[in-house]
Amino acid sequence: MTARAAGLIRRSWLPAAALLAFLAFAAIHAAAFRPLRERYQSGMRRAVELGMPLDGGSAPAAASPHILDLLAANSLDAAAAEERGTSGVLTAGLLDETARLAARHRLEVRATEQGLVTQLPSSVQVRAHLRLRGRYASFVGLLGDLARSNRLIAVDRFAIRAGPSPSQDIDLWATQLILKRPRSGR
Q1: Which of 47, 99, 130, 167 could anchor a disulfide with 52, C-beta 3.0 to 4.6 Å?
Q2: What pLDDT, in 10s, does the model give residues 110-153?
């Protein structure tokens, strides 16, 4: 090795070591993080295909007709929602709907109680308590009908006790959400 070659090696060993370290980190990055990046990009593509705009510049996707029907069926003008909520009309509607569905499943409605009405800025929550008697399978059918109904009714809790054979005594607490439509007077 000549003196010139030894001087070149002495001057360039640090950049050569840095280049080797860069190449090693690039190889590790490509092997470890490329699958994660591809999974993230495919998730982003699927989200955009489903209509979820993920960048701030794009307009939100229009709601489906089913969602629009659900919102229309469960909303009232703000003044009407407050008036009907305080007068008990909304709670009576919840009790009527739930009792009608219970009767369809051959459940005997033994008692009904109005619950609290909560007025929120954008919605009204009405609560009710029903005492039912019937078979367990009929109660499950009632829960299925409540889930499939076009109403925003939630079963908060229920209790089942043994009753006269083959029936059970069932306590059901339910809440219905009614959305307040904003006033459109612009």
Answers
A1: 47
A2: 999 999 999 988 999 999 999 999 999 999 999 999 999 888 99
Q: Which residue has the tokens 């229920």?
A: 158
Helix (H/G/I), strand (E/B), else coil: 67? helix
One domain for residues 157 and 91? yes
- Number of structural domains (the chain) is 2
- Are 104 and 67 in contact, with CB atoms under 8 Å apart? no
Of 46, 61, 76, which marks where a domain is finished? 61
pLDDT tens sequence across 23-45: 999 998 888 888 888 888 888 88
Question: Buried (b) or exposed (e) across 132-151, using 16+ Cβ within 10 A?
Answer: bbbeeebbebbeebbeeeeb
Place of tokens 């705009």: 53
Sign of CA pseudo-dihedral 135, 140, 143, 148: negative
The answer for residues whose C-beta is within 8 angstroms of residue 61's C-beta and 6 or more apart is 51, 52, 53
Q: Return the amino acid letter for 10.
A: R
Q: Does 97 reside within a domain?
A: yes
Q: How many helices (H) and strands (E) does the chain have?
A: 5, 5
